[in-house]
Write a structure and sequence with these properties.
The chain has 723 residues and is α/β, with parallel strands linked by helices. It has 35 helices and 17 strands.
Length: 723
């Protein structure tokens, strides 16, 4: 049994702390006593100390298996700050040259090194196995252990070989640590590492200081993000995106809107990544826009907000990323922009994976969707997902609790749901049960002949979202559960059986429908000031009549909406409006600016100058390249191929160019596609249109012209007549 007095003395001597945090002391005692240990501790809970202190106190060298080179370097640098000799900690990975590798091995062999960080890939090399077989190992620590599980959010196949390699090198106690693991993932980790008998220590996942909010992802998402950041000036924040391209675009957008921001993703060279990370840590910039490659092992305690521009692929990933906010115990705001379209994109991205990987990915996405669309306390859902019970009715620190929706008694409906699970043999996932209850006769349901069962369609008079909420909230309440071995399969618990015998009050709130906000017609005004928007539309109509052009050629609806939101009063400000280039601003801007100035003065409006979203001036080098290529009359399909664009992506770029007021002449290319009389027919159609409705044009001419031909003529028309 470890000596507690000695433990505390070592803690103070090595790290300067007078007491342990949470259950660190019990974890360290178990490891020092020779037991295998499993540690589930949220970000910021002090996981690293659970293996660093016992390593410093033990004979020999602790082998720390860690997934990222950057994370190893941070950990080694951190431990060296506390110790007199740099040799106390080393890492062994592919970033070292032969001289550096020899130095590391010499220090380990001579007993100077207490912690040796190794990537799982390095651990598999024969020369490293042979080297480790010849040293005194105190214990093994498997950091970021969720990488072992295919159900974890960052699965690494190399991690599944760790137990075999440990057995090959020499068996010693193992401590596995992770910040995010569902009961399913925890079981996977322990089973794979051969430590089902390990001492298990779980810390609470409840981060009371974090505020959770889900917002619909609309076309104004960039404006919302800029407003949010400017409402928290000089505070540190992280914005997560799924793609490198989006990271670069958003970081550039923030910079041109006077926000100190930098990108971070694996596509940047190592020195740039490191410099950008250091700039954020040392507060030279306020915001890092990043893929999930950023943040692992980053110990910045005062991150005040984490924004998810895109939906994460799993709730584990979401929890770990939001966990980087408020690590100092201060306020942390976690806002995710949610879109069902983004979910569909993520599902499409999985199509190249194996059937097993696709099934796992879909299950994880369904959990993410359930969290995003639910009206239940966000904290309750998260804690339940990680196997922790939360009994509070209202956490007071999430959007659903601060703005609760109406609750309805669904006791009888829950009974139907429990009976449906039983009647179908407790062998199906939630989606199947919902389809069964609403009476949707899918191929799968018919194949099991469950459409012939008495309970089929028992809740057919209920909305799908309500039935989904009843089943999911029945799981959170403990009446139903998802099986650990066959994840996602819904089973009835003892509490569920008791509920059937003696039903009690069971209230639910209906899930939110995010598809509504995405299916609004494009012409519906999103302007902050609908009165000014109406005035500007009238002015556009008058201008169009005067110059004998359709109104949309003057300014498109989104441009008018932006004017009625940010109130530009100078030519320079007008040019920052999306879809208004210098040409349009000079040609039509004066009369619109006069109206806005007068409106602002008469209504004593305090203009939100801070929230004007400036677009990136170049809209990139791609557009400049296209304009120059068109000037030289290079075929458009050749221009697209040179920039790795498909033809429709290039059409969108050309539409953006002409709609913002820049003139281009694509007649040379159109003449190779369409005879002059056909071009004239389409040209006259667009001249006579009152509304700019491309879908209507496609429907009108779908049997005569291709989409490319219709859009190209529209681009030529707007360029000729509007610019």
């Amino acid at each position: 049994m470890a000596d507690k007095t000695k433990l505390l003395a070592s803690l103070e001597r090595h790290f300067g702390f007078e007491k342990f945090k949470g259950n660190q002391e019990q974890i360290i005692e178990s490891l020092l006593d020779g037991h295998d240990v499993f540690v589930l501790m949220p970000t910021g809970g002090g996981k690293s100390l659970c293996y660093q202190l016992p390593a410093l106190m033990s004979e020999g060298t602790a082998i720390i298996i860690s997934p990222l080179i950057a994370l190893m370097k941070n950990q080694v640098d951190a431990i060296r700050q506390f110790e007199e000799d740099d040799e106390v900690a080393h890492f062994l990975n592919s970033s070292l040259n032969k001289t550096q590798t020899d130095k590391v091995k010499r220090d380990v062999t001579e007993g100077r090194t207490k912690l040796l960080y190794v990537a799982p890939e390095s651990l598999t090399k024969d020369e490293n196995i042979a080297f480790l077989q010849g040293i005194n190992i105190s214990f093994y620590a498997v950091d970021e252990a969720h990488c072992i599980s295919e159900w974890g959010h960052d699965f690494r196949p190399e991690y599944r070989r760790i137990r075999h390699i440990i057995n090959n090198i020499g068996v010693r106690p193992v401590i596995a640590l992770t910040a995010t693991a569902t009961p399913k993932v925890q079981h996977d980790i322990q089973k794979n590492l051969g430590m089902l008998d390990a001492h298990v220590y779980k810390s609470s996942f409840n981060r009371r200081n974090l505020y959770y909010e889900i917002r619909p992802k609309t076309k104004d998402v960039c404006r919302d993000i800029i407003r949010m950041i400017k409402n928290h000036p000089k505070e540190s924040g992280i914005i997560y995106c799924l793609s490198r391209k989006r990271v670069d675009q958003l970081a550039e957008m923030l910079k041109v809107n006077d926000i100190a921001a930098l990108p971070y993703h694996a596509g940047l060279d190592a020195s740039t990544r490191s410099a950008n990370q250091d700039a954020f840590l040392h507060e030279k910039v306020d915001v890092i826009v990043a893929t999930i490659a950023f943040g692992m092992g980053i110990d910045k305690p005062d991150v005040r907000y984490v924004i998810h521009y895109d939906i994460p692929k799993s709730l584990e990933g979401y929890y770990q990323e939001t966990g980087r906010a408020g690590r100092d115990g201060g306020e942390g705001r976690c806002v995710m922009f949610y879109s069902t379209r983004d979910l569909q994109k993520l599902e499409k991205l999985m199509q190249s994976k194996t059937p097993t990987e696709q099934e796992i990915g879909r299950q994880l996405l369904q959990e993410m969707a359930a969290y995003g669309e639910s009206s239940v306390c966000r904290r309750k859902i998260l804690l339940h997902y990680f196997g922790e019970k939360y009994d509070e009715d209202n956490c007071g620190n999430c959007d659903n609790c601060l703005h609760p929706r109406r609750r309805i008694d669904a006791s009888e409906d829950l009974c139907s749901a429990i009976e449906a699970v039983q009647e179908t043999g407790e062998n199906f996932r939630m989606e199947y049960i919902v389809n069964f209850l609403v009476g949707r006769s899918t191929d799968e349901i018919r194949s099991f002949r469950h459409n012939e069962l008495e309970l089929f369609g028992a809740l057919r008079d209920r909305d799908d979202r309500l039935v989904h909420a009843i089943v999911s909230q029945g799981i959170i309440a403990g009446y139903l559960q998802k099986d650990i071995e066959n994840y996602g399969i819904v089973k009835v618990t003892k509490a569920g059986e008791d509920f059937l015998e003696n039903p009690e009050k069971f209230e639910v709130v209906e899930d939110k429908d995010f598809s509504e906000c995405e299916s609004e017609p494009v012409h519906k005004s999103g302007a902050a000031d609908p009165i000014l928007y109406a005035i500007l539309k009238n002015q556009r109509k008058d201008t169009a009549k005067r110059v004998k052009l359709p109104p949309y050629v003057i300014f498109q609806d989104p441009s008018l909406e932006a004017m009625a939101t940010t109130y530009p009063v100078t030519l320079e400000e007008l040019q920052t409006i999306p879809g208004v280039g210098i040409g349009k601003a000079r040609r039509y801007g004066k009369e619109f600016l006069d109206i806005i100035r007068k409106y602002v003065d008469e209504n004593e409006i305090d203009r939100p100058e801070d929230f004007k979203v400036r677009t990136v001036a170049s809209r990139s080098k791609t557009r400049i390249y296209l304009i120059q290529g068109i000037d030289r009359k290079i075929p458009l399909d050749e221009l697209a191929a040179n920039k790795n664009l498909d033809f429709f992506e290039m059409l969108a770029e050309l539409e953006g160019i002409v709609e913002s007021g820049t003139k281009i002449n694509i007649g040379y290319y159109l003449d190779t596609l369409l005879d002059k009389e056909f071009q004239d027919e389409l040209y006259d159609y667009f001249r006579d249109c009152e509304e700019d409705d491309l879908d209507e044009a496609l429907r009108e001419f779908c049997d005569e012209y291709s989409e490319e031909e219709i859009r190209l003529v529209r681009i030529k028309f707007i360029s000729d007549m509007g610019n």
